[in-house]
Amino acid sequence: MDRDADALWEETFTDVASLAGPKVRGKIRDWRTDNVYYRDCSYAIEQPSEMNVRYGEDFIQFLFLLRGKRLATCFETEDCAHLLTAGEFVFFLHPRNAARSVFVSKCPFQQVSVVNIPASSFFGGHYNDVGLGEKLVQGMFMGPVRITPDLLDCIARLNRLSERSSLYRSRLLDVNIRELVLLALEAYEAQIQHAVPKSEQEILEKMSRVERLLAGSPEREYSLKQLAEYSLTNTTFLKSRFKQIYGQTVFEYLTTLRMKKAMVLLQSGDMPIADVAAATGYRYATHFTAAFKKYYGVLPKNFRHYAAPLNTNGIALLLHCLFPYIWG
Asked: What would the DSSP string read from start to end of 110-147?
C-alpha cells in the first residue's frame, strides 16, 4: 500500500503476513512526513513469533518496548540477539537492505513504538545537531536504556496526533520526534554516567559484548568512546577491565583479530593484497603491509608465497621463525 507523506494510517490486523507466528492480533498506527516515520503497535501474541525487517535506505531507528514481556532483535550477521524488557529502548543505524530479525514472546498484550529517521535527513541537516555521528556505527545497538517519565510523556503526545487536524499534524510530528530524540539521548548519556557494574559477572558480560562486536566485524573502524558507550561503561573502565580479562588492550585485540583474518585470506586464495587490506579494516594497502610485517615479521606477499603450498595452521610462520633467511 502506498502511503502519502503527512498521513495518519490506522490498521487492525489478524495473522500478520510478516510475522512467522500465525497467532498475532492487534493494531498499527502510522504517522509520517518527509523527514520522519513513527509507528505505534499494540498487539497480542498467542505464540512466540519472529518478524523479519529490511529497509531500502539507511535509517536511524529508536525502538521502545512500552508494555509486554520482552523483545529481542539482531541483524543476520550477528550471533546473538539484543534483549529488551518492558520499559527499555535501543537505538541504532539500520543499514540499507540489511536483514534484521525481531523475536517476540507469547504475551497477552505488547506495545511497541518505533521511530525511523532517514540517515540522509538525520545527518544531512534536519537532525544534524543532536550529536549522534560519533555514537552510531552501522548495525551497532546502543542500549538498552530505561525509558524515563519524560520519554513516556512525549510518546503519549505522539500517540494523540490523531486528535490533531492534518494542517498541523506534520509540524507537530517533527517537533515531538525531535524532542523524543533529545530525551532519548539524555537518558542514554545519564545511564552511561551512572553505569557502575555491580558484580564480576556483569563486568564480564559487558566486556564480552565488546569482544563479540570486535570479533564479528574486525574490519570496522571503532573508537574507544564508541565501544565504551556500546557497553554502557566509560573509557577508563573499558580500557582497564578489557585488558584484565583478555590480556590485551582493546586495539591490540582488534589488531590480533585483523591479522588472523588476514592470514586466512592470504592462505586461502589469490585475493589481491589491497582487497585483503580492505577486508581487514585498512584503508591503504601500505598501512596493512606495515601492520602485517610488524605483527608476523614477514611481508604479506612473502607469507602468501610460502604459506600457500603448506596451507596448514601457521607452519609457514614457524619456518620463518626457525629459518628467517629463506623469506628474503
From this structure: EEEEEEEEEHHHHHHTTTGGG--TTT--BT--EEEEEP
Eight-class DSSP state of 324: G
Size of the chain, expressed as the number of residues it contains: 328
Centroid of chain to Cα 230: 9
Tens digit of each residue's pLDDT (9 = 90 or more) over 9-22: 444 444 444 444 44
The Cα 49–Cα 19 span in angstroms is 6
Direct distance between the N- and C-terminal alpha carbons of the chain, in angstroms, rounded to an integer: 66
Residue with cell 510530528: 173
Tens digit of each residue's pLDDT (9 = 90 or more) over 187-212 = 888 877 666 555 777 888 889 889 98
CATH 1.10.10.60 fits 252-327, yes or no: yes
Q: Output the nine-digit C-alpha cell for 96.
A: 540499507
Kindly list the distances between the CA atom of residue 72 and the CA atoms of 5, 65, 144, in Å, as whole numbers in the listed order: 30, 10, 11
Residue 81 gets which letter from DSSP? P
Helix or strand (DSSP H, E) at 185? helix 166-193
- Cell numbers at residue 124, please? 544531512
Q: Model-level pTM? A: 0.60
The topology (CATH level 3) of 7-193 is Jelly Rolls (2.60.120)
Tell me how far apart the alpha carbons of residues 80 and 95 are, in angstroms, rounded to a whole number: 18
Task: Measure the CA–CA gap between 240 and 250, rounded to whole angstroms.
Answer: 9
Q: Residue 76: helix, strand or coil by DSSP?
A: coil
β-pair partners for 116: 37, 61
